[in-house]
Amino acid sequence: MTEPLHPREPARVPLANQPTRGHWLRYGDALGTRIWLKRDDHTGSELMGNKVRKLEYLMAEALAQEATHVLTCGGEQSNHARATAFAAAQLGMKSVLILRTDDPAKPPAPTGNILLDRLVGAQLVWITRGAWRDRNALLAEHAERLRAEGHRPYIVPEGGSNALGSWGYLRAMRELVDDLATIARPDAPVTVVYACGSGGTGAGLVLAAKLWKLHERGIRVAGVNVCDDRAYFTAAITKICADADARWDLGANITADDIDIVDGHVGLGYARSRPEELATIRDVARTDGVVFDPVYTGKAFHGVVTELKQDPQRFGATVAFIHTGGLYGLFASPDTIAQVL
Ligand SMILES: Cc1ncc(COP(=O)(O)O)c(C=O)c1O
Question: Could you tell me the pTM of the whole model?
Answer without folding.
Answer: 0.97
